[in-house]
Amino acid sequence: MRQTPTGDTGATLDTDVCVIGAGPAGLALTLMLLRSGLRVTLVERSTALRREFHGEILQPGGQRILDELGVLAGATARGAARLRGFQVLERERVLLDIDYGRLRAPYDHLLALPQPHLLEELLAACRELPGFTLLEGHRIAALLQKRPDSPCTGAVVNGPDRVPVTVRAQVVVGADGRFSKTRALAGIDAGRRDSFAHDVVWFSVHAPGQATGQVRVHRGEGSAVLVHDTHPDRLRIGWTLPHGGWRGAVRRGIEDIRWELAEVLPQYADLVHEQITSMADLTLLDVFASHAGEWVRDGLVLLGDSAHTHGPIGAQGINLALQDAAALHPVLVGALADGEPTARRLAPYQDRRAPAAAAVHRMQVMQARSLFGGGGPAAAFLRARAAAVVTRTPIGAKITRKVAHGHDPAGVRTDLFPVLHVNRSL
Ligand SMILES: Cc1cc2nc3c(=O)[nH]c(=O)nc-3n(C[C@H](O)[C@H](O)[C@H](O)COP(=O)(O)OP(=O)(O)OC[C@H]3O[C@@H](n4cnc5c(N)ncnc54)[C@H](O)[C@@H]3O)c2cc1C
């Protein structure tokens, strides 16, 4: 890495790829590129991976990618809970049982893996490799482009002291999440779709001895509460509220919220009353979906949530982010080896992954309808029939495989890990 101090205007770094955002997508891609011999500068706005809560259910497809990268065992050793599958319950009666035990081992379960454990393990693996530069506490401020329609040649990122650092790169990867600044700076529309009628309020309680080994969705009249075990000896709870319902809940105050929660989850009422004492114990997830029309431009790629965002139903976001990284890796390595990181060369990544993201969106819309739908006795009968099919038949096993591994799952191209000659034009 060359570093050129430039006085008041900060430093200039030269790298092959500048990845914005050290979430699952950005870190996994960084590790793959480093192992292929590329230089990567990773820019992350938070420090010490202290990010807001971001969910932790990891599907088998994502587990497989982490395993292929050799980081799954280390991440789970930091603490994780193994879960057998998803269950939907109505008044303690199991309506739907998606049993991952029907899948092929070792990827025959879900993992509740706290994101810091996953991210720290990926970061530790990156730190072992040459060519890695981490700019923590830095935010993207601008893309380096002569004109808005000319190729991207890097990014300007601002540190905690607001001193800019210019990162010159052959490609900038926007992996900065659902409110991606990289995407906004490129003038790419997020393609937001308000497909879901509910937001989710997340919290967790210490609950030793109360593990269920499942992700359970307790269905009530027009609402649902999700509960799963998490590390260490805790239950993670997601309470769904109609869009806009949070403002009313805040007005009513924490005491009222505790009573409402106790009503939908009577079995955990004591834990909620003891441990949820202020609004600061709750995190609101504004649930929406998005799908950007353009994921690749000359010298620029969008990855993970910045390209497509999903609702929380079926826990697909981390899975998709990791699979995106695995699909982008060979495309990027090939394009850089030829010194041609153009939209045309990067397009196979979008061509492969956009259908996978679109398939998840379609599935989530259907799942939301069946989870929250009313519709009277006829609709309830049809829902029960559909649930019986998923629970008991081979079609159900096929659906479970799709949910667990995704549409066209990408594996890690470990054959590209030996150091590769790169045509460096910088
Ligand atoms: C509350 C909640 C619960 C969820 N539960 C689940 C679940 O159980 N299972 C599941 O699979 N998915 C879940 N998701 C979705 C999942 O977290 C995301 O799909 C996944 O993290 C996407 O990974 P990513 O790397 O693309 O983006 P992110 O994980 O969002 O990472 C983006 C990174 O970019 C950084 N960043 C943002 N802006 C800038 C900037 N301007 N400059 C520099 N860095 C920046 C952020 O700090 C962050 O580290 C949940 C999401 C939320 C919010």
Automatic annotation (TrEMBL):
Gene Ontology molecular-function annotations: FAD binding; monooxygenase activity
Alphabetical list of InterPro entries matching this protein: FAD-bd, FAD/NAD-bd_sf, PheA/TfdB_FAD_monoxygenase
Keywords tagged on the record: Monooxygenase, Oxidoreductase
Domain FAD-binding: 14-362
Top-level division of the source organism's lineage: Bacteria
Family annotation (Pfam families): FAD_binding_3 (PF01494)
Regions crossing the membrane: none
PANTHER family on file: 3-(3-HYDROXY-PHENYL)PROPIONATE/3-HYDROXYCINNAMIC ACID HYDROXYLASE, FAD-DEPENDENT MONOOXYGENASE
UniProt protein name: FAD-binding monooxygenase
Native organism: Streptomyces roseus
